[in-house]
Amino acid sequence: MGKDPRLQREPGGTAGRPLRFAPVLWRALLQAAGDVPDTHPLAGDLARWRSDADALKTVPLLGAFHVNTLIRTALHGSRSSALGIDIGRTQTLSSFGPAGFAMMTSATLGEAFRVGLHYQRLIGTPLLLHAETVGDDVHLHLQSGVALHTDVERFLIEEFLASLIAILRQETGRDLRPTRTELTSPALPPDTQRRYHAAFGDITLGAPGHVTVVPAWWFPLPLLRADPAAHRDAVAWCERLSYGEAQRAGHTFDAQVRDCLRQQPADARHLTDVAAVLGLHPRTVRHRLARLGTSFRALRAEVLSDQAQEWLTSSGASTDHIAHELGYSDARSLRRAVRNWTGRTPHDLRQQPSTAAEDQE
């Protein structure tokens, strides 16, 4: 797929992690954005995107600037105190294409979760999802996959959690709700906080990260629309979509490894983690990359460099926060890495001129 040259010019561009929304969320955002003046940074894009959506064309890949600007425009054009909840609670698994169909036809809720985590890139969200078992609970961590503004991140968390709860109930026939949800927001307007508690139950604000906790006993629950044969075909479809597009575009194995690294959470970017996602032995990954004249270590550094520069040029997050998001022990380690990659300091990168479009944001 060709890259939009405008995305290549903006800070961060699409190099860090190009994004594609799920069609149902994409259409909802285009509708919520409403009419914008000709001077709006996305005026031309919105007209083209809506025309393409009417023609049922594929949702485009977006960079951090377009994601932030589109969602902020939708938020400003909405009267809702929690637009993400309003959009999320209307969604079904069929809204998420082949990955949603693979989840819907899974035998159990646990299998559906595993499918969703494995094919999250196909579902269409700028969030990165990572699950871990803690005692009798499963903690689902939600992280920003790109540099997002605070209100944009809050919208995406709202939308994800609301859709998760709605889908849990639809597919199991039970009134399921997370045990608790922890969010980084230090405070919310009273009406928004009431909506959060009504929609999500027990909410803790000011947490160090976004986490929703569900009991492990949910995972053996059967799904109402389980279908082994359809599930097998849907998973095969997802596999073709995951890597077929890159191969058809002439991308080699190193492109698949880069893409996988971008999707993995910060603590799961080791060779063994990526090899497991690709369904290969770590030795096989090393040998294939060596034949292409590169290495896993070099690709990992490339991806981290792209993401660090995207965060530094497209967000106001502190260097400590960015270091944590990228898996570094502290800001000092990140500064050293950035200097090795670019010959510049994080402060220098933050001072580089913004695009005219960003100035109008």
From TrEMBL:
Q: Name one Pfam family in it.
A: Arabinose_bd
Q: Which UniProt keywords apply?
A: DNA-binding, Transcription, Transcription regulation
Q: Domain of life, per the record?
A: Bacteria
Query: What segment(s) does the record annotate as region Disordered?
Result: 342-361
Check the record and name the InterPro entries matching this protein: AraC-type_N (IPR032687), Homeodomain-like_sf (IPR009057), HTH_AraC (IPR018060)
List all Polar residues biased stretches. 351-361
Residues in domain HTH araC/xylS-type?
A: 255-352
Q: By what name is this protein known?
A: AraC family transcriptional regulator ligand-binding domain-containing protein
